[in-house]
Amino acid sequence: MQGVNYLIAAYAVAWVGLFIYLAFIVMRIRGVRTELAAVQELVREQQEKTQN
Amino acid sequence: MALTKPDTSVRQQDTPVSTKRSAGFPLASLLLGGLALGGMLITIWMAFLYAPTDAVEGPPQRIFYLHVPVAWVGMLSFIILTICGVVYLWQRDERWDWAARASAEIGAVFLSLALITGSIWGKTTWGTWWTWDPQLTTTLILWFMFIAYLMLRSYMGRTAASARSGAVLAIIGVIDVPIIYESAVWWRTLHPPKEIGVAGALPSEVVLTLMVALVSFTLLYSFLMIQVYQLQRAQTLAERLRALVE
Amino acid sequence: MNKTARRIVGTDLSCPGATPCDRPARELRIFCDQVWAILWKDVRCELRNKQAWTSMGLFALLVLVIFNFAFDLRVDNKVAVAPGALWVAFIFASLLGLGRTIAIEREQGPMDRLLLCPVDRRAIYLAKLLGNVLFIGVVEIVALPVFAALFDVPLGVGALLPIVLFGTLGIATIGTLFSAIAAATRARELLLPLLVFPLIVPVVIAAVRATGDLLAPALNEPPWLGLIIAFDVIFLSVSTLLFQYVIEE
């Protein structure tokens, strides 16, 4: 039944698409958290240097 | 155009506090995520098992319960994007801009899915992957507007000028969409539009399933909004701190 | 300050005995003076740069010729394709024209100096808009007879001019606003079409159909010219209001 194939294809595309997008968001959040931690470390070092 | 002036930059002693809060809205996030997931599962069950099979189209008609909510979220995102843009222009609080960018991104994804699912559904009902009927045409143009917004913001960076320009684009877009739709309707009056095939009163199961689907996808949208908003916030802060250090 | 500058900043208040009731009229006159002054400056600048005119004109003609080859036009299908070909040529020429004016601004930087004066931002927008309409309009007027010849369509139709005028105004209204936005980015030539095309879809549809209706009148056609004029009115007002947000510092 060709119709059912299209039905499954549509739902599959949508769900896979949404999951990929969710994964993409999670990946970016992790990336920016690392970046933020790294930069804050640098800022702290700079502050210590100017205090000393 | 000048970069954002230092008066809006993050003061250094505030940064540790805001990072802790950046795990932010955890309760709302969890709640919405859980509800969205629950709603999705219920929607799938209802769409495949509860709703009756359409007499004319058969099984592929069930794409309707996926395509309509996804398209709805796409439209909703654009409206939210514009509202955030207008408030930003008024209040100049960058948090509204973060929300606008988040809504734009999510809207682009959902609208892309709407176009794909709509195309697949069209293939089953009309035998063609694409047709220039007013709804699809307007959806396509709206999709281009989302892409234009994202590319504009990407090129202009995280400046105040970028936020203002984005807001202007959204406002013009939102006023234009009804005009585009109307002109497409006029354009197509000579060629009778192919009906979507849902004639007459819809059975209550169909309406209920559709409502549940709409609510679930809106919950999903809200959940994603929180996540991407936090992402935008963190990215802006990181960029600003990096500029301080370098 | 010379007279032009005084007119721009509106301190040429050489009207003795002005009553409070005269204020709106006087402000309007100052506003129009500002628009005219900026427009005249831009036009003088453009007139010096004749190369741009000729390249835009030639480009429009080239598009028309290419249409001939692309659609393998014969006598029977010419009338069907002619309006589309004309407007594609006009749209691409408009985009070139819009891109050029902002490129000049960025190179010479007059916008920044202009912003230092207390000029009404809306006056700047209207002046730029009129400049663009004039610039594109001249190219279109030159292209029309050639179009009529290449596509063998009767051009004795004075009704074509309003369609061309209001259609171009619609494209330029959106285009001027977004060329100011795109001017700030590095990839402005790439970004401008992406921003403008989706928004001018109603004008394109309406202009092509209105032109087609002129060449081959049909029954029960919707009021396409009315749609274009409505579009122009709506977006002229909205863009004039929004322009200040685009160029503020």
How would you characterize the overall build of this protein?
The complex is a heterotrimer of chains A (52), B (246) and C (249). With 52 residues, chain A is mostly helical. Chain A contains one helix and no strands. Chain A has a domain at 21-52. Chain A is rod-shaped and about 75 Å long. The termini of chain A are far apart. Chain B has a domain at 77-193 and 204-246. Helix content of chain B is 76%, strand content 0%. Chain B has helices at residues 15-21, 26-50, 64-91, 94-126, 134-156, 160-188, 204-245. Chain B is globular and about 65 Å long. Chain C has one domain (50-247). The longest helix of chain C has 34 residues, at 75-108. The two termini of chain C are 25 Å apart. Chains in contact: A-B, B-C. The interface between A and B is medium-sized, with 27 and 38 residues.
How many E-type strands of chain A? 0
* Cα radius of gyration of chain A in angstroms: 23 Å
Instruction: Tell me the structural class of chain B.
Output: mainly alpha
Order of helices and strands of chain B: HHHHHHH
Overall average pLDDT of chain B = 84
Terminus-to-terminus distance of chain A: 77 Å
**Structural class computed from helices and strand pairing of chain A:** mainly alpha
Average pLDDT score of chain A: 89
Instruction: Name the overall outline of chain A.
Output: rod-shaped
Order of helices and strands of chain A: H
User: What is the oligomeric state here?
Assistant: heterotrimer
Unreliable sequence segments of chain A:
none
State the shape of chain B: globular
Helix content range of the residues of chain B, please? over 70%
Provide the β-strand percentage band of chain B. under 5%
Name the chain pair with the biggest interface and residue counts per chain: A-B, 27 and 38 residues
> What is the strand tally of chain B?
0
